[in-house]
């Protein structure tokens, strides 16, 4: 059930270009599937009248809290990063479909690139609650992009690549040696599109089930404006409503 809710910022962690925002509401937080997102209203900025889509990074149902991990790229995200503890934030949630949960005993690889690691934290946490310990492969341009690495490491064996070689193996996630050493039943990916396409290609070549979480530009977030469409084998679909998570077999990549 979607709701429009006011949250209060109760904790903020600064990671330089990115911030972690922990938000609490007085209402009950609805059931949230990992991979779903919120549409955040950006107050106090006339040029950002459209809400901004942000993945749900973590959820604490008992405390009525959700956490977002936001990277500053423009006016809207800069405003969100400038919020102060105590500020109110209005959000529509939960939106989109979310990742398909694996069967018990299946070996899962979660691949995140850049800020695309955001939805994978809550996903890995939910998998742990279901006694499924995922493997994580996180990539960034350099070490400073690897946000909350020690927290991810607690949720599963975690491998890292950086483009400049400052941490983990040097190169892109698709170049990591794990691909030669291990095999997986299910692969889940979120990150920049070229990276997701490269991982999807690897998965398809090896006949491995794979879901990707698309971050197409969005406006309404509700399936009304058609600005987020993706070409699929079933025709053009709205990523905000039918996605953002798609099995790669549906995508015309
Ligand atoms: C389903 C979904 C989940 C997302 N989850 C997160 C998240 O957890 N954390 C996070 O930091 N960001 C996330 N994003 C991206 C985020 O929505 C955009 O960065 C944000 O809307 C940009 O707003 P802005 O006003 O700061 O920048 P704008 O001024 O709107 O844009 C600044 C620049 O960023 C580019 N840009 C805007 N949106 C995107 C995008 N989706 N992909 C690539 N480039 C973009 C624009 O083309 C422009 O060049 C998500 C996007 C989607 C669709
Ligand atoms: S953002 Fe409007 S239809 Fe998807």
Structure notes:
18% of the residues lie in helices and 34% in strands. The protein is an alpha/beta fold. The strands form 3 sheets. A 7-stranded antiparallel sheet has the order 4-3-7-1-2-6-5. A hairpin with a 2-residue loop joins strand 14 and strand 15 (235-238). Residues 218-221, 223-228, 238, 240 line the site of FE2/S2 (inorganic) cluster (FES).
Question: What can be said about this structure in brief?
Answer:
The protein is of the alpha/beta class and 253 residues long.
What is the strand and helix layout of this fold?
Blueprint: E1 3-15, E2 18-24, E3 37-40, E4 52-55, E5 58-60, E6 65-71, H1 75-81, E7 88-95, E8 108-113, H2 118-129, E9 135-140, H3 149-153, E10 157-162, E11 169-170, H4 178-181, E12 186-190, H5 193-205, E13 209-213, E14 229-232, E15 235-238, H6 239-242, E16 245-247
Parallel strand pairs: 8-9, 8-12, 9-10, 10-11, 12-13
Antiparallel strand pairs: 1-2, 1-7, 2-6, 3-4, 3-7, 5-6, 13-16, 14-15
The structure holds flavin-adenine dinucleotide and FE2/S2 (inorganic) cluster.
Flavin-adenine dinucleotide (FAD) is lined by residues 37, 48, 52-55, 69-71, 73-77, 115, 118, 215-218, 244.
Lateral strand order in the biggest sheet: 4-3-7-1-2-6-5
Residues in helix, %: 10-25%
Mean pLDDT: 96
Main sheet makeup = 7 strands, antiparallel
Q: Strand tally, please?
A: 16
How many helices? 6
Instruction: Report the span from N to C terminus.
Output: 32 Å
Strand content: 25-35%
Order of helices and strands: EEEEEEHEEHEHEEHEHEEEHE
Hetero groups: flavin-adenine dinucleotide, FE2/S2 (inorganic) cluster
């Amino acid at each position: 059930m979607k709701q429009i809710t006011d949250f209060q910022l109760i904790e903020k962690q600064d990671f330089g270009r990115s911030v972690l925002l922990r938000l609490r509401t007085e209402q009950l937080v609805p059931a949230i599937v990992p991979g779903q997102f919120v549409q955040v209203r950006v107050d106090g900025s006339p040029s950002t009248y459209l809400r901004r889509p942000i993945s749900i990074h973590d959820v604490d149902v008992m405390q009525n809290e959700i956490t977002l991990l936001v990277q500053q790229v423009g006016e809207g995200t800069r405003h969100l990063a400038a919020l102060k503890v105590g500020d109110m934030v209005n959000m529509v949630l939960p939106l989109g479909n979310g990742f398909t949960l694996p069967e018990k005993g299946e070996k899962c690889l979660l691949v995140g690139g850049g800020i695309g690691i955001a939805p994978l934290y809550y996903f890995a946490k939910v998998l742990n609650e279901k006694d499924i310990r995922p493997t994580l492969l996180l990539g960034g341009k350099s070490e400073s992009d690897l946000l909350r690495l020690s927290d991810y490491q607690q949720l599963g064996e975690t491998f890292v690549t950086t483009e400049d070689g400052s941490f983990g193996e040097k190169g892109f996630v698709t170049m990591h040696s794990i691909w030669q050493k291990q095999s997986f039943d299910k692969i889940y990916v979120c990150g920049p599109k070229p990276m997701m396409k490269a991982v999807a290609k690897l998965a398809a070549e090896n006949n491995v089930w794979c879901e990707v979480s698309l971050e197409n530009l969005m406006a309404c977030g509700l399936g009304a404006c058609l600005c987020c469409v993706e070409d699929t084998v079933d025709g053009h679909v709205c990523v905000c409503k039918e996605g953002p998570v798609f099995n790669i077999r549906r995508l015309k990549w």
